[in-house]
Write a structure and sequence with these properties.
The chain has four domains: 84 residues, Annexin (Annexin V, domain 1), CATH 1.10.220; 69 residues, Annexin V, domain 1 (Orthogonal Bundle), CATH 1.10.220.10; 95 residues, Orthogonal Bundle (Annexin V, domain 1); 69 residues, Annexin V, domain 1 (Orthogonal Bundle). It starts with a helix and ends with a helix. Helix 2 packs across helix 4, helix 12 runs antiparallel to helix 13 and helix 16 packs across helix 17. The protein is built from 21 helices and no strands.
């Protein structure tokens, strides 16, 4: 079995519990016939683009890889290079993303986020928050295969403080797989509440004491949210409210947001959102990406492409519940041309 096939197989296995794709394997399927269709489409202009989009968006990733192999052998050319020459802008990025197995795609996105000047933290937060331990370990392995550097080292080199500590915990796969531990939950909630109260009572002018308590509190919250299972945290959030009369997100994360870095706050809130509903978190990311004042085509493309073969069906349902409109309706409104056709072909069952 090829490396790519192993990767795809691993991703399918880890995502099986929430499997609700919008893109399914074509049946019947003939890789050579599809390669010939692509070869003819490259000779056309606009109509050729539509043909390529309609074909590739209606094939599963294993089938796309088989088509790539058939095309390269049939024409003695590189399909990815020909696609890059055919498409431009957002559509070029979208097509290239579609042709990558999910782990390869995520590895490339993280590398993009940490390479060059600055770091695109939202990409790191999104990808690292939604993966479980097995997926994280597979991603770390694939990242090192592609770039010859460890995922952890590259992320740590471009982040700092408790934000870095939290991401490192997640990359290490330190999150427990246990469903729920009552004693651990009680201890976590008690520790967080008591350290929060101690911090609130400390005079800010006592700088050394205040900074020590503040740092200690941040580490405690990061450790709990970065290492406990999502099922465990969901119960603990409910018990925190029952015990202290406050929502965990507001009482713990919200109150101290002005003291913590914006990226630490974003990560903690992302984890809390995924704890309640991963579909809801990704639905919000999609909705926010279509802000007319600040369209984020990369995020819009990444989520739709990467989840279309996994659970985009569930995300679509949550999107409609949250925003009282269909995902495809918003995509159609805020995009245009063949890029719109590409996204809608993936979104619609």
């Amino acid at each position: 079995m090829s490396t790519s096939a192993v990767i795809i197989f691993a991703v399918c296995i880890t995502f099986v519990s929430s499997f609700d794709p919008t893109v399914h394997p074509a049946n019947p399927f003939n890789a050579v016939a599809d390669a010939e269709t692509l070869g003819a489409a490259f000779q056309l202009q606009y109509a050729g683009e539509v043909t390529i989009i309609n074909l590739l968006t209606k094939r599963a990733i294993k089938q796309r890889l088989n088509i790539t192999k058939a095309y390269n052998e049939l024409y003695n050319r590189d399909l990815m290079a020909d696609l890059h020459e055919k498409f431009h802008g957002e559509l070029d990025y979208a097509i290239a993303s579609l042709m990558s197995p999910v782990l390869d795609y995520y590895a490339k996105e993280i590398h993009y986020a940490v390479a060059g000047w600055g770091t695109t933290e939202d990409i790191l937060i999104e990808i690292l928050t939604i993966l479980n331990n097995n997926e994280m370990k597979a991603l770390a392995t694939r990242y090192e295969q592609l770039y010859g550097r460890s995922l952890k080292s590259d992320v740590e080199d471009d982040t700092s403080g408790n934000f870095q500590v939290l991401l490192s915990m997640m990359i290490n796969g330190e999150r427990s797989e246990a469903a729920y531990n009552e004693q651990q939950c009680f201890a976590d909630n008690k520790a967080i509440f008591e350290k929060r109260e101690a911090l609130m009572k400390t005079e800010k002018w006592v700088i050394v004491t205040y900074e020590k308590k503040y740092k200690d509190f941040g580490i405690t919250v990061a450790e709990v949210l970065g290492t406990r299972s999502y099922n465990h945290l969901k119960v603990c959030f409910n018990k925190y409210r029952a015990s202290y009369g406050e929502h965990f997100e507001d009482h713990v994360i919200g109150v101290f947001s002005k003291f913590w870095s914006k990226n630490l706050k974003k990560t903690l809130l992302a984890i809390a959102h995924v704890v309640h509903t991963k579909f809801g978190y990704l639905a919000k990311r999609l909705y926010d990406s279509m802000d007319p004042k600040n369209m984020n085509y990369r995020t819009l493309t990444r989520i739709i492409v990467s989840r279309s073969g996994v659970d985009l069906g569930g995300i679509k349902k949550e999107f409609e519940l949250m925003y009282s409109t269909k995902l495809e309706t918003m995509v159609a409104h805020w995009t245009s041309g063949n890029y719109q056709k590409f996204l809608l072909s993936l979104v619609q069952n």
